[in-house]
Amino acid sequence: MSFARPKISSTIRWNWDGDRILHECVVPSSRPVAGYGNSRRYEIDVREFIGSDHNAVMRETLSEDFKSFVRQQRGADWDFLHSRGPGSFDHMSSLLTSYVQHEIRYANRKVDYWQFPDETLFVKEGDCEDRALLLASLLTAAGISPYNVRVALGYVRRFDTGNRTGHFDHCWVMYKDEAGRWSILEPSADAPQSGMKPDGDALRNAKDTVGLEYVPEFVFNGDHLWEVNNPLHTARKRRRTLKQRWSGLHPTFYGEVHRTILNEALGRDGTAPDWWLQQANRNFTILFGQCIDAPDLNLFKYNPYDHFDNGYIDESWELVRTRLDTFKNQPLTDPDGIDSFAKAAHGIGDFYAHTNYAHMAIANGLAGKPTPYDPVKKTPAFSIDYSTDPQYRLGSKPLSTNPDVIEPAQMGKAVAFWKGRIISGRFGQTGDSRGVLEAPCYIPADIIKKDKNFAFRGALPHHNEIAVDKENGSNSLYNRGAYDDQLKWRKDAAVLQIRNAFKDHP
Fold first, then answer.
1. pTM of this prediction?
2. Which of 135, 158, 214, 452 is most buried as measured by Cβ atoms within 10 A of its Cβ?
3. For 39-52, how does the pLDDT look when each residue is reduced to its tens digit (9 = 90+)?
4. Cα distance between residue 505 and residue 269, in whole Å
């Protein structure tokens, strides 16, 4: 993904359906029976904490408080929620997550006992388990299949800028969306708080965090409890038992690490409603330590137009505009529109991260003035000569070429071909792989066949040599200070263009 930020790690590593049913489902309630004092604690079946679709309290909440909440959310559609049409279940899951985040305060207690969902609704506060159990109960009461909902018990691994890791126990919800993908629903995110401050080493060092990984150990719904096979168990030097307690992921900490280019563009000033971002964020993950968007996950269906790679600038902008048109011509609730915008935002980010537009803009007096590019008018326009530019001399060190695609005798023509054009790095060309993400990527044969000037794309620098797409990164062109300046300029320009594109929705 362009402009890698601290992110929530990939969910594809784990079997969220559960690997093995456990028949011992008893956990300590951690609290006494009402009226019997502190000494009379009891055990309870963990599945009892998730309300069924027949729970009258959940249904009343959905028909009254939740309905009022939805009516206040820009772009939300109450009638669509109950239509059972394509996207309605995803819309419901996003809105219910937002409802729990905003209506149930985050609070830690000295005595860590689990509240029943009915109790959490009454007191309007709870820790991570309480809020996760409430969200799962509301999802099933709203008509979402309980087999598409799991409460997950496990821990969150934290990775910081010094390559150190830590962990803290946590509880959250997994939801299988209408595309069949398991995604994290985090009821602790961005929540109002009841006087709580982050505590613990992991929370104090939140700003150093470069990644989180949600690691499940158990998942359950109202019918079954499953264990999840986890090779990391042995690394923790102890085996988790179901009877141990789970503590909370503080909302402030979650906010520090849940920043993508999409969230920076649309979330900070309220441009997009929270429920919409909940759903759009399902297009983002981490793979092999790098931030990845949905187009990147299709490694074996690589299309350079998705990423502004290999100098395909006009073609990539055409694809971005097509996706933005799909978004603008549909209501905000439309799942295809949401996915189309997320992919368009990915493309916009890649334009600034992968091309040399920012390099030319800064060299032409726009340093400190992030200026989005107009792909229709092709402005602002800059001139660059790739035979003389001190940093972008094609075919000259430190920039490489791909001899499998271009012959030395063609270099002069290639340099002339690219003169004055915005370029980007080559990627996915035959005989040219430079990493695990690039290895399975091949430019589709039909693109190569119809491109009479494809050989000239072998003269482009490699993506890794010129891309500016991650914090604390580097490339062949810039020292650390110049790289950081480029990163900030590019991010700011991308954020502005993505924000304006969203505002174009009627």
1. 0.87
2. 135
3. 667 888 999 999 88
4. 16
